[in-house]
Write a structure and sequence with these properties.
Helix content of chain B: 40-55%
Number of helices of chain A: 12
Distance between the termini of chain A: 41 Å
Number of domains of chain A: 2
Strand order of the largest sheet of chain B: 2-1-3-4-8-7
CATH topology of chain B: Rossmann fold
CATH topology of the largest domain in chain A: Rossmann fold
Largest sheet of chain A: 7 strands, mixed
Radius of gyration of chain A: 19 Å
Largest interface: A-B, 52 and 54 residues
Oligomer: heterodimer
Largest sheet of chain B: 6 strands, parallel
CATH architecture of chain B: 3-Layer(aba) Sandwich
CATH superfamily of chain B: Thiamin diphosphate (ThDP)-binding fold, Pyr/PP domains
Structural class of chain B: alpha/beta
Number of domains of chain B: 1
Strand content of chain A: 15-25%
Order of helices and strands of chain B: HHEHHEHEHEEEHEHEHHH
Strand order of the largest sheet of chain A: 3-2-4-5-7-6-12
CATH class of the largest domain in chain A: Alpha Beta
Number of strands of chain B: 8
Chain lengths: 326, 329
């Protein structure tokens, strides 16, 4: 049995590995130093790397991400933390107008190798301003790479690729997964950006998932297996680059596509996956494409209400059964 | 190392300002002739800020400018021809015609961009200054911005954090009295919108004559020295005035005629000519500089006009560091 590690410890481990490897890697954000991060995802970094490379900032999201950009343009590889992904709205100018456009607007003169890490998603009862899944915000902007790991090993491997990337990366860590455990990443573990994983093999229906919807989809698939059907669960790992080759290859086997996403149906990333599947995989399909996504409402506080809004195992199982019966 | 500006050096700076003025006028003419699409924000009148600051900075320092940034691009070494070509959508544009007037950039000369979201680049300059500190160099970073930027949050976030971290960054406000079409004084709770705010962040500030290239060079030199020696940021508020409107064909009729005349009487080129005379630079040398500058601008206009148009294939390049735009398999 391999060593187990939590998703939250994997974040600190992934950061530490890259900081040991490359002195140009630095971290900045609110409460990331002495406090070890409000989600305890940066524990130990200050002690090992010192205050020059692990910097606590004021509550100034524009300064955090803007300074990361200026540093990235001049030879540093900053990893900026925005505490909750909802707060990306406070510095959205940098993610929408500055960081993704600078290389293009200057005709390739400028490189912006930075990572913005942020805690994303619901399921913990934080209410409407601290629970959103906003990976679709980043997907809407050409020029950003978008990463969202589902397990501790991928956290380490994808962080390595994100930090080493010469392109800007938004790295979504899912709040609902921080306490989850998985196999520790071996030394030197690197997961390339844009390479989806088969989280569970199957031949009857393809379920495309990301971050917290991966374990959700796997749980639903296990429940479905009791009635004899095998779902193949694909963990996209990244929205940009988007590994549609893996999705289309799976559809050649299954002919049925279900997408499980935590962001709202309205403008959610599943719409992009469905669009490509319809465009390039229409003849592979034996049933309509279905999406289980968040309802198009602000995230409510109470568990009983939140469960009505975000994807749950029963919703995914029901959608799979409907598609299989089509 | 304080910058010394003697007669021959001032003559060089004067010629640089003349070239910028001539290029801005050429840009205006090209816009009116339909050769420049979109918009332009001309910096005629602001030349002394860019040229004076550049004279006081080192080639390896970093400069961040605004959408009114032609003068900064040229002062740092972008050629008038490649700037005009950019405005005219030509393949030889400094940004391959992918940026346009508002985004002139010459990264190889430390001119790290012109930013068109007001105030956004102040944290970038702070970040470049932080980077210099991390890499153990004594480079400084400079953010040039307008008076209007002093009322946006990024200005305050950048000043605060730069002060706390004592970063080697200079914040240089080009106060031309108008936030686009609105007098800055009518929307700002400070007489000097940049300098008066500095005290709130425990930063030193100076209000300087932005139309006197020597005064600008002196002030920037002092501030850069302080920054390089670990003394932290400085806020400079350079008082200046634009000779054209805010953008495009804005005739700037909201500015009183007496005010316009008062500032035209303090044209930075006239101020420089007076200083050249005081330093004993012969009239003939000044006349020669005038001729050289006019030739430089005329050649640049001709080169830009005759250049090939933007290459359509460039539309799908330069998104990612590998040069491409692929976002999926």
């Amino acid at each position: 049995m391999a060593d187990l590690i939590t998703y939250r410890d994997a974040v600190a481990e992934g950061l530490a590995r890259e900081m040991r490897r490359d002195p140009a890697v630095v971290c900045l954000g609110e409460d990331i130093g002495a406090a070890g991060g409000v989600f305890k995802t940066t524990v130990g970094l200050l002690a090992e790397f010192g205050p020059d490379r692990v910097r606590d900032t004021p509550i100034s999201e524009q300064a955090i991400v803007g300074m990361a950009m200026g540093a990235a343009m001049t030879g540093i590889r900053p990893v900026a933390e925005i505490m909750f992904s909802d707060f990306l709205a406070c510095c959205w100018d940098y993610l929408a107008n500055e960081i993704p456009k600078m290389r293009y607007m200057t005709g390739g003169q400028v490189t912006v190798p930075l990572v913005v890490r942020t805690a994303n998603g619901g399921g913990l009862g934080f209410g409407a301003q601290h629970s959103q899944a906003v990976e679709n915000w980043a997907l809407a902007v050409p020029g950003l790479k978008v990463v969202a790991p589902s397990n501790p090993s991928d956290v380490v491997g994808l962080l390595a690729s994100a930090i080493r990337s010469d392109d800007p990366v938004v790295f979504f860590e899912h709040k609902g997964l921080f306490a989850s455990r998985g196999e520790a990443a071996p030394e030197g573990h690197v997961v390339p950006l844009g390479q989806a994983a088969i989280a569970r093999p199957g031949s009857d229906i393809t379920v495309v998932a990301l971050a917290a919807t991966v374990p959700l989809a796997v749980a639903a698939a296990e429940e479905l297996a009791g009635s004899g059907a095998q779902a193949e669960v694909i963990d996209l790992r990244c929205l940009v680059p988007l590994d549609m080759a893996t999705v289309l290859a799976s559809l050649r086997k299954t002919s049925r596509l279900l997408i499980v996403e935590e962001n709202p149906y309205q403008g959610g990333w599943g719409g992009t996956v469905a669009s490509i599947a319809a465009d390039e995989g229409f003849e592979l399909l034996d049933a309509p494409i279905r999406r289980v996504a968040a309802e198009c409402v602000p995230l409510p506080f109470a568990d009983a209400l939140e469960d009505e809004v975000i994807p749950t195992t029963p919703k995914v199982v029901a959608a799979m059964r409907t598609l299989l019966a089509y | 190392m304080t910058t010394v500006i003697d007669g021959p050096r001032l003559l060089e700076l004067y010629e640089q300002m003349l070239v910028i003025r001539g290029t801005e006028k050429a840009a205006h003419d090209a816009f009116l002739a339909g050769l420049v699409k979109g918009t332009t924000h001309l910096a005629a009148g602001h030349e002394a800020v860019a040229v004076g600051a550049s004279a006081a900075l080192r080639p390896d320092d970093y400069v961040f400018a605004t959408y009114r940034g032609h003068h900064h691009a040229m002062a740092r070494g972008a050629s008038p021809a490649e700037c005009l070509a950019e405005l005219m959508s030509k393949a030889t544009g400094v940004c391959k015609a992918k940026g346009g007037s508002m985004h002139l950039t010459k990264a190889s000369a430390g001119m790290l961009g012109s930013y068109a979201i007001v105030g956004a680049h102040l944290p970038l300059a702070a970040g470049a200054a932080w980077s210099a500190r991390l890499r153990g160099t004594d480079q400084v970073a400079v953010a040039f911005f307008g008076d209007g930027a002093t009322n946006i949050g990024a200005f305050h976030e950048a000043l605060n954090l730069s002060s706390v971290w004592a970063l080697p960054v200079l914040f240089i406000c080009e106060n031309n009295l108008y936030m686009e079409y609105t007098p800055i004084g009518t929307v700002t709770a400070a007489k000097h919108p940049a300098a008066d705010r500095a005290a709130g962040y425990q930063l030193p500030a100076e209000v300087i004559d932005g139309n006197d290239v020597v005064a600008v060079a002196d002030a920037v030199s002092r501030a850069a020295d302080r920054a390089r020696s670990g003394g932290g940021p400085t806020v400079l508020e350079a008082q200046t005035y634009r000779h054209f409107g805010h953008s495009r064909t804005d005739p700037a009729t909201y500015r009183p005629a007496s005010e316009v005349q008062e500032w035209l009487d303090r044209d930075p080129l006239d101020v420089a000519r007076r200083r050249l005379a005081e330093l004993g630079v012969p009239d003939g040398d000044i006349a020669d500089a005038n001729v050289r500058a006019a030739t430089t601008v005329a050649d640049a206009v001709a080169a830009a006009k005759s250049a090939d148009g933007a290459d359509p294939a460039q539309a799908l390049t330069d998104v990612w560091a590998d040069g491409g735009h692929q976002w999926r398999t």
